[in-house]
Amino acid sequence: MSVLKKQIKTKKTKEEMKSFVNDKILKLPILSSVVSKSEWNIDRLDIESKLGDGYFLFMENLVELEIKLSFMGNIAKAQIEKAIDTEFLKLEENNS
């Protein structure tokens, strides 16, 4: 089993980032089609999907992501990571 683990630094508050992940990241086609459950627990968003299970943890100016990928998730790991990175980069570029 492979793990996708990232720390993403941002200029945004944790509330702005929570909204961004809810509105943009979870709606990415590569994720939205396979996420079976997402549940908020204060500053942590737990997700379950066909590609793996994990979480987003929100702190001021930092988002931590960890997903334990299934076999299928491991095959799509590079695509998932690229899609997430692209969306976070767009967010930072739009607000520089």
The best one-word shape is globular
- The average pLDDT value, as a whole number, equals 87
Strand content: 35-45%
Number of helices: 4
Instruction: Report, as a whole number of angstroms, the end-to-end distance.
Output: 37 Å
Report the C-alpha radius of gyration, rounded: 13 Å
Strand neighbour order, sheet with most strands:
1-5-4-3-2
- Helix and strand element order: EHHEEEEHH
Class by SSE composition: alpha+beta
Largest sheet: 5 strands, antiparallel
Provide the helix percentage.
25-40%
The unreliable regions are none
Strand segment tally: 5
What does this structure look like?
The protein is α+β, with helices and mostly antiparallel strands and 96 residues long. The protein is built from four helices and five strands; from the N terminus they run E-H-H-E-E-E-E-H-H. The chain has helices spanning 14-23, 29-32, 71-75, 77-94, and strands spanning 2-9, 35-41, 44-49, 52-59, 62-69. A five-stranded antiparallel sheet has the order 1-5-4-3-2. The chain is globular, with a radius of gyration of 13 Å. It starts with a strand and ends with a helix.
